[in-house]
Each structure stands twice: as structure tokens, then as C-alpha cells.
Design brief:
about 100 residues, alpha/beta, Glutaredoxin, 5-stranded mixed sheet, about 40% helix
Length: about 100
């Protein structure tokens, strides 16, 4: 699973023709930790077709405020720098998979 890539801005990370699923999370957040196996499974299943980026809101407070993240986890899907979808809270693997597949088509 990807983390913030050094020397890249958030805009550079999400400005990609490949779908980018961003997970705004916190280390202290139980629901965030519960999502880790789901994200690992999706990363394995989608491979190169989707990039998963995890952003710790405590380490990236300014970005979380700028992106209007009000709770964790918050998931956002981007393509070519445009936000296609966002939702806070725990999601099932099936729900996230369907959202990604719909955006990919």
C-alpha cells in the first residue's frame, strides 16, 4: 500500500490517468485499522489499475483541512486530479470495489 510519496504534492499524486483511491486515516482510529485488510485485498485485486494512497491526517493536518476531511476514515477517488467520489466511514470491500469499478468504466 502506498504512503505519501516524498517530494510529491497531493495534486501530483492524484493527477493521474490511473484511478487513485485516497484513504485519509489516523493511527489511533479503530475503524481505520479495520479497513487495512480491505485496502490490502483491493490493492492485490486491482493491481496497477488503481493506486491506493494512505494519508495520516495527524501528519498532514493542512491537507486534511484543505480537503475538508471531517472524520476518519474518509475515502476519496480521483482521476486526472478530479475528485470523482468521497465518503467517510467504514465501507465493505464489495462497496469499495463497486465504486472503483464504476469509476473505471
Amino acid at each position: 500500500m502506498s504512503c505519501m510519496v516524498k517530494n510529491m504534492t497531493f495534486e501530483e499524486l492524484v493527477d493521474s490517468e490511473t484511478l487513485v483511491l485516497v484513504d485519509f486515516h489516523a493511527a489511533w482510529c479503530g475503524p481505520c485499522r479495520a479497513m487495512l485488510p480491505v485496502l490490502d485485498d483491493l490493492e492485490e485485486e486491482f493491481g496497477e489499475r488503481v493506486r491506493i494512497v494512505k494519508i495520516d491526517v495527524d501528519e498532514n493536518t493542512d491537507l486534511a483541512v484543505r480537503m475538508r476531511v471531517m472524520g476518519v476514515p474518509t475515502f476519496m477517488l480521483f482521476r486526472n486530479g478530479h475528485e470523482l467520489w468521497r465518503q467517510p466511514g467504514v465501507l465493505t470491500k464489495e462497496s469499495l470495489k463497486m465504486i472503483i469499478e464504476t469509476a473505471a468504466s
